UniProtKB/TrEMBL annotation:
Gene Ontology BP, a term: potassium ion transport
Sequence ranges assigned to domain RCK N-terminal in this UniProt record: 2-118
Superkingdom of source: Bacteria
Source organism of the structure: Staphylococcus massiliensis S46
UniProt xrefs under Gene3D superfamilies: NAD(P)-binding Rossmann-like Domain (3.40.50.720), Regulator of K+ conductance, C-terminal domain (3.30.70.1450)
Residue intervals of the RCK C-terminal domain: 135-219
Pfam families per UniProt: TrkA_C, TrkA_N
Protein name in UniProt: K+ transport system NAD-binding component
GO molecular function: monoatomic cation transmembrane transporter activity
Length: 223
């Protein structure tokens, strides 16, 4: 059976989730208290509904507990976001993903039972900071639990050396999980392969180790 999703809050963030789920051919109910916002999504979502999601009776009448996954994309109004999340969990929705505006908001959402809390603005800010701090860092993707994936251009010092010779795992506790070479992606590369200057290395590690690696290895070679 197809999964069914609900997106609550049709700002830029919630709206882009609805559009993408539609592209992926998923059933999605889009809810907002603003009629104008709901009208924008009436042709994109499977159902588009005007409702105040802080009203438990309204949520019950929508049969919200029968949906597989509800995404709370209300940001600015922290009270509406937390109350909506609380009602969803109390009604027994299995999976609730909520957008946090700041760390304090995230803490409350976790406490009241949100299954996943996302910080799109903070995460995008961090990705851009890593990218502007070093032209060699192409992307930075934060995972849960202080670990991240970073994509870097091979430096001149790395070129011609094998992964074993680079010794990054022993020195920094970071693993190279894939190498992008032209159009190819070498997943779980053989440690004997030699890195080429045009390679892009995809690495995973603890945030502190990645920061240490960026400071010591990636940035000095840019000078
Ligand atoms: P974004 O940053 O994603 O662009 P935004 O700044 O437009 O969002 P937010 O305050 O984050 O606005 O709210 C997103 C949407 O949530 C708005 O369209 C708002 O009408 C809706 N919303 C706020 N409170 C409720 C509520 N109680 N019930 C339903 N929808 C709500």
């Amino acid at each position: 059976m197809e999964k069914e999703y609900v997106v609550i809050g049709l700002g830029r963030f919630g709206g882009s989730i609805v559009r993408e789920l539609n592209v992926l051919d998923m059933d999605v109910m889009a809810i907002d208290s603003s009629e104008a916002r709901v009208n924008e999504y009436s042709d994109i979502a499977t159902h588009a509904v005007v409702a105040d999601t802080t009203d438990e009776a309204v949520m019950k009448s929508l049969g919200i507990r029968n949906f597989d996954h509800v995404i709370v994309a209300i940001g600015e109004n922290i009270q509406a976001s937390t109350l909506t999340t609380l009602i969803l969990k109390e009604l027994g929705v299995k999976k609730v993903t909520a957008k946090a505006q700041n760390d304090y908001h995230a803490k409350i959402l976790n406490k009241i039972g949100a299954d996943t809390v996302v910080h799109p603005e903070r995460d995008m800010g961090r990705r851009i900071a890593h990218n502007v701090a070093s032209a060699s860092v192409l992307d930075y993707l934060e995972l849960a639990d202080e670990h991240s994936i970073v994509e870097i251009k091979a430096t001149e010092e790395m070129a011609g050396k094998s992964i074993i010779e680079l010794d990054i795992r022993a020195q920094f506790g970071i693993s190279i999980i894939a190498v992008k070479r032209g159009k190819d992606i070498i997943v779980a590369p053989d440690p004997e392969i030699n890195i080429e200057l045009a390679d892009i290395l995809i690495m995973i590690g603890h945030d502190n180790d990645i920061n240490r690696f960026e400071k010591k290895i990636v940035r000095p070679s840019e000078r």
